[in-house]
From TrEMBL:
Catalytic activity, as annotated: succinate + ATP + CoA = succinyl-CoA + ADP + phosphate; GTP + succinate + CoA = succinyl-CoA + GDP + phosphate
Protein name as catalogued: Succinate--CoA ligase [ADP-forming] subunit beta
Function per UniProt: Succinyl-CoA synthetase functions in the citric acid cycle (TCA), coupling the hydrolysis of succinyl-CoA to the synthesis of either ATP or GTP and thus represents the only step of substrate-level phosphorylation in the TCA. The beta subunit provides nucleotide specificity of the enzyme and binds the substrate succinate, while the binding sites for coenzyme A and phosphate are found in the alpha subunit.
Record text on cofactor binding: Binds 1 Mg(2+) ion per subunit.
ATP-grasp fold succinyl-CoA synthetase-type domain segment(s): 2-217
Coiled coil start-end: none
Naturally occurring in which organism (per UniProt): Mariniradius sediminis
Pathway: Carbohydrate metabolism; tricarboxylic acid cycle; succinate from succinyl-CoA (ligase route): step 1/1
Length: 405
C-alpha cells in the first residue's frame, strides 16, 4: 500500500528520522494557515509547495489546467495561497502518471532547507527494500541524489552502493558506517548519516514496509542529514498488525475498479486488453492470460475470484469486468476442486440473469469435479454463454468471438 509523502514523513519522524518539516493543506486558505504555523514552528520564510499524489517526478510534472509545476517555491508567505491554488484541484501529469495524470487534492507546505551556511548543501539517494534473489533486505545509496536513480544505475552502476542485511543479525553498526564512508561524508555529517540510516532501517522493519525510497536525502549547509522527500510502500499482508497505518490508505489514488473488487473480496488488476478474464486461482489466471494472447487476444484484466466461487462472486466479477469498455469477450476458466463445476455453472447462469443483458459473448471453460454436468447447465441455459472443456477449445471460441465483435 502506497502512502502520501506527508504521511510517510510523519511515519519516519515517529522513529527518530529527521525530516523536512511540513504541514498538509487542502485549500488555499488552509495553505496560508499552514505557512504561518510552519513559520512559527521552524522560522522558515520561504515555503515549498508540493502536490500530494502517489507518483514520482512531481517537480518536473505539470498541472494541465494552470501550467504550474507539481513542486513550487513561494518566497513570500502571501504568495502561498495563489501558488497552492494553481496546484489544488488540478491534474498533475508526471513521467509516472501517464498522459491522463492524477488529480491533486492536497498539498504539503514544507520548510525551505536549502539555506546558506558554512558549506554547500548536498543531495544523496537512499532506499531500503527486499532483495528477493538473496532473501534479505538491502540498503541502496548513491551520491547522485535528486536524480532519476534508474538512469544513474544504467549509466553509472559504480555509483550505486549496496549493503545486504543478514536477517539473523539485523543491521550492524559497521555496515551503516561503511555506507556513510562510501558516500564521502566526514565529521558531524558522517555521524548524522549513521544516525539517519539506523533510524530509517528501524522504521522500515518496525512498520513492515516493502520499500522505502528517500530521494533526496539532504546534507544541509550546517551538516544536518534529513529526508526532503519520502516514498513508502507498506506490505499489505502485514497491515493487520498496524491498524493505524491501514487507516492511511487513500482510495482516491487507486483504480476505482480495483477498490470495488477489493470490497467484494476479489483480486483484480486492470490491464489494457480486450478479453475479460475470470478465474479461480492466481496460477490458473496467469495461464489463462497466456492462452488469450496465444489465441490472438489481449487480457483486459487479472481477476481471481478465489476457491469458493459462487453466484455472488461471479456476479461481482461480471459487473467489474463490464465496466471496461474495451472488453469484447469474457472468458471464465474455473477448476472445480474446492467447489464443484455444476455449482459454478449454476452461479454463472444466476449471475447472468441477475445482471440482465450482457453485450459481449461469454465462454466458460470448466474442468474438475462434475465438469460435464457444468457444461450441460451452461449449454441448456438459453443464454449467450458457451461452454468449453479443453484449453484449446476455449482459445478457439475466444478467437471466434473476437473476430465477430
Amino acid at each position: 500500500m502506497n502512502i502520501h509523502e506527508y504521511q510517510a514523513k510523519e511515519l519516519l519522524k515517529s522513529y527518530g528520522v529527521r525530516i523536512q518539516e511540513g504541514i498538509v493543506a487542502d485549500s488555499p486558505e488552509s495553505a496560508l494557515e499552514a505557512a504561518k504555523g510552519l513559520n512559527e514552528q521552524t522560522g522558515t520564510s520561504w515555503y515549498v509547495i508540493k502536490a500530494q499524489i502517489h507518483a514520482g517526478g512531481r517537480g518536473k510534472g505539470q498541472i494541465k489546467e494552470t501550467g504550474s509545476r507539481g513542486v513550487v517555491l513561494a518566497k513570500k508567505q502571501e504568495d502561498v495561497p495563489t501558488k497552492a491554488a494553481d496546484i489544488l484541484g488540478g491534474t498533475l501529469v508526471t513521467i509516472q502518471t501517464g498522459a491522463e495524470g492524477k488529480k491533486v487534492n492536497k498539498v504539503l507546505i514544507a520548510e525551505d532547507v536549502y539555506y546558506p551556511g558554512a558549506s554547500e548543501p548536498k543531495e544523496y539517494y537512499l532506499s531500503i527494500l527486499l532483495d528477493r534473489g538473496k532473501g534479505c533486505n538491502v540498503i541502496m545509496a548513491s551520491t547522485e541524489g535528486g536524480m532519476d536513480i534508474e538512469e544513474v544505475a544504467e549509466k553509472h552502476p559504480e555509483k550505486i552502493i549496496k549493503e545486504w542485511i543478514d536477517p539473523k543479525f539485523g543491521l550492524q553498526g559497521f555496515q551503516v558506517r561503511k555506507i556513510a564512508f562510501k558516500l564521502g561524508l566526514e565529521g558531524n555529517a558522517f555521524k548524522e548519516m549513521v544516525k539517519f540510516i539506523t533510524s530509517l532501517y528501524n522504521a522500515y522493519v518496525g512498520s513492515d514496509s516493502s520499500q522505502f525510497e528517500i530521494n533526496p536525502v539532504l546534507k544541509t549547509s550546517d551538516d544536518k542529514i534529513l529526508a526532503v522527500d519520502a516514498k513508502v510502500n507498506l506490505d499489505d499482508n502485514a497491515l493487520y498488525r498496524h491498524k493505524d497505518l491501514a487507516d492511511l490508505r487513500d482510495v482516491a489514488e487507486e483504480d476505482p475498479l480495483e477498490v470495488e473488487a477489493g470490497k467484494s473480496g476479489l483480486n483484480y488488476v486492470k490491464l489494457d486488453g480486450n478479453v475479460g478474464c475470470m478465474v479461480n486461482g492466481a496460477g490458473l489466471a496467469m495461464a489463462t492470460m497466456d492462452m488469450i494472447k496465444l489465441s490472438g487476444g489481449e487480457p483486459a484484466n487479472f481477476l481471481d475470484v478465489g476457491g469458493g466461487a459462487n453466484a455472488t462472486t461471479v456476479e461481482a466479477g461480471f459487473r467489474i469486468i463490464l465496466q471496461d469498455p474495451n472488453v469484447k469477450a469474457i472468458l471464465i476458466n474455473v477448476f472445480g476442486g474446492i467447489v464443484r463445476c455444476d455449482r459454478i455453472a449454476n452461479g454463472v447462469v444466476e449471475a447472468y440473469r441477475s445482471i440482465g443483458n450482457i453485450p459481449v459473448p461469454i465462454i466458460v471453460r470448466l474442468q474438475g469435479t462434475n465438469a460435464e454436468e457444468g457444461a450441460r447447465i451452461i449449454d441448456e441455459s438459453g443464454l449467450k454463454v458457451s461452454s468449453a472443456i479443453t484449453l484449446k477449445e476455449a482459445a478457439e471460441k475466444v478467437k471466434k468471438a473476437l473476430a465477430e465483435s
